[in-house]
């Protein structure tokens, strides 16, 4: 009998994909995935957990939605929870289809999911300051008629926010198309401006994506989509039943109440460290640092891949971005001690 090869029957658009970088590189200091460096452990919550595991979780995740709604002073009916915001990006593309439009370089999942679902994608290059190319985006909206536009602000991996005016013009143009603009605010908690929540009341084609992953709970997998009820009720049609498990719902709800002050302190600490790390990085000869409003910093060095490998050899893992931005590396803000060690090793590598 011939050997069965599943690759023969894979859909064409999946053939061209490779899995999201999921490889684990052992390291002493992990600054590659934009996680929080501060430990939040299951034991912080588990002592009071008495949850029946023989029952399915609340399919509506009501308590968690209400806890989030209270924080943002909006109604829980304007919130949908996902198994990470990745899942919500998937649901949005599955629901509204394509074409999908987004600026690049940006978070890879918009393109990966569009391709795996089999919808067309259009990419608009950021300008030399990594701001959005408003004219090109607006042209693409008018000519290609995307159904969904994803804008990550602050943007991963560049770290900057985009001009609010430009985004508002894009949302306005998209509304007439009609298309939905999703502002991905995964890094909003580290940002000095207020983001797009205040504009939700002005635009019914605007949705906002947020996540608990970057503020200390990446292990839980909780993302949330904020938007008007009509938009959410369409996306709810493709949501898998019980997409957020019972422990996740419980812990996330608890974290938002009794641990929220601690989460906020961690965020303040990360922002303080980001500012310090930025300053220190820019003092190192041969390093070009880009402004950041997130919990990571993009920088350039000559022979970046070589520098990346040498950092790994010293037990420090950051992200090599050179395949998207020439000579670029992205470092997540760690604890004070981790950042110090990273700066010391980088300085040594660059001969400082
Ligand atoms: N959006 C952006 C811009 C991101 O950088 C990430 C994570 N790298 C995500 C969404 C996904 O976050 P989550 O862990 O909530 O799936």
TrEMBL record:
InterPro entries in alphabetical order: Aminotransferase_I/II_large, HisP_aminotrans, PyrdxlP-dep_Trfase, PyrdxlP-dep_Trfase_major, PyrdxlP-dep_Trfase_small
GO BP annotations of the record are: L-histidine biosynthetic process
Q: Which residues cross the membrane?
A: 88-113
State the Gene Ontology terms under molecular function: histidinol-phosphate transaminase activity; pyridoxal phosphate binding
Q: What class of enzyme is it?
A: transferase
EC number(s) per UniProt? 2.6.1.9
Q: Which reaction does it catalyse?
A: L-histidinol phosphate + 2-oxoglutarate = 3-(imidazol-4-yl)-2-oxopropyl phosphate + L-glutamate
Q: In which pathway does it act?
A: Amino-acid biosynthesis; L-histidine biosynthesis; L-histidine from 5-phospho-alpha-D-ribose 1-diphosphate: step 7/9
The UniProt keyword set, sorted, is: Amino-acid biosynthesis, Aminotransferase, Histidine biosynthesis, Membrane, Pyridoxal phosphate, Transferase, Transmembrane, Transmembrane helix
Say yes or no: keyword Ion transport present.
no
Q: Which cofactor does it need?
A: pyridoxal 5'-phosphate
Q: Which residues form the Aminotransferase class I/classII large domain?
A: 32-345
Q: Which HAMAP family does the protein's record reference?
A: HisC_aminotrans_2
UniProt xrefs under NCBIfam families: hisC (TIGR01141)
Quaternary state and interactors: Homodimer.
Return the protein name. Answer: Histidinol-phosphate aminotransferase
